Structure formats: C-alpha cells, structure tokens
Amino acid sequence: MLFSHDTEHSLACAVELVNSAPRGANDEGLPDLNALREFVVRHDVSEVGRLSGADLQAVQDLREAIRPVFSAPDDRTAAAVVNTLVSQAGVTPRLTDHDGYDWHIHYFTPGASLADHLAIDCGMALAHVVASGEHERLRRCEAPDCEQVLVDLSRNRSKRYCDARTCGNRLHVAAYRERQRAAQ
Ligand SMILES: [Zn+2]
Ligand SMILES: [Zn+2]
C-alpha cells in the first residue's frame, strides 16, 4: 500500500466525487438527496447528520474545487488547490476509534457540514499525496472524450485510464481515433 488506508480511502472518495459531476456524456451522479445519502454510506463517512438541499448543493460545488488538483501541471499548483480546499473549513485533528475501527485521525471539526467534512477528508488525503512527492499520481483519464479523474496507485505508475468500462479498451480507443481521422 502506497499511502495509509485512511488516505487511500479518502482518495477514492475524492475521485468518485469529482467523477460524479455532469460532464460530456455523463449525467449528474449526485442528482438528489438519495444519491448523496448513498454516497455517504458507500464511503463510510462518519458523523453525518440530517442532509438538506443546501448540503447537496454544497457537495456538488465542492467537486469543482477538488477537480483542478488532478490537472495541476506542477507541485506548486497542486499545493495551492489543496491549501484552498483545506482552508475553507475548520480543522480539529483528533484521534478516534469509532465504530470498531482502529485508532485513526479525524481532521474535520465535529458538527461540520457534509461538504466541509468532505473538503477536509479529501483535502488532507490529497495533501499527503503532494507532500510525498507523488502528485503525478493524480491524473485525468487519457481515453479520448473522457474527462474522468483517477489516482494511480499502481507500483509502476502505469494506470492511464479511469475505471469506466470503455476507457481502458484498446479497441474503443482505436475506433475513436479512426473516426477522428475519417472526419478530417
Ligand atoms: Zn473515522
Ligand atoms: Zn476514462
């Protein structure tokens, strides 16, 4: 494992969050409160209270604050994105062993809104990646027409495509290039 379990968990959360935004052929992945609640359960986000329409809007907006870290050309740009993210919300680092999990650090302030909680969780995980000199592992999918982002956790940094069914498919990519050529 490259990073701690918590960090990798939060990185997966950041990737799914950014990729839920409507873009190109993708529909809105978080269209309503039910979808938001499912997201919270899927990513095991703790201490989440009642969610409102304002929470949904704030989480949808948060995605565009996280996205630029995946296309940052250098460490300094990535650091600026991360710093903006983690300075938006209060941070209260503390050790916790809730719900049977071993001791780990929570950074979000108790009682934080879901968007603030996610901004801190994702921001701190991304901060660890940049601080480890691994910022290049934060990427955009290289498949044509795909705007999804990914974290490359492979040993040899070989991950090029997001996890969408078609993206890693050579035939799909070749067919697309052929269509582009034909259209010119
Ligand atoms: Zn926890
Ligand atoms: Zn893709």
Automatic annotation (TrEMBL):
Classification via InterPro entries: ABATE, ABATE_dom_sf, Znf_CGNR
Gene3D superfamilies xrefs: Jann2411-like domain
Origin: domain of life: Bacteria
Entries under SUPFAM superfamilies matching the protein: Jann2411-like
Residue stretches making up the Zinc finger CGNR domain: 137-180
UniProt name for this protein: Zf-CGNR multi-domain protein
Organism (species): Nocardioides iriomotensis
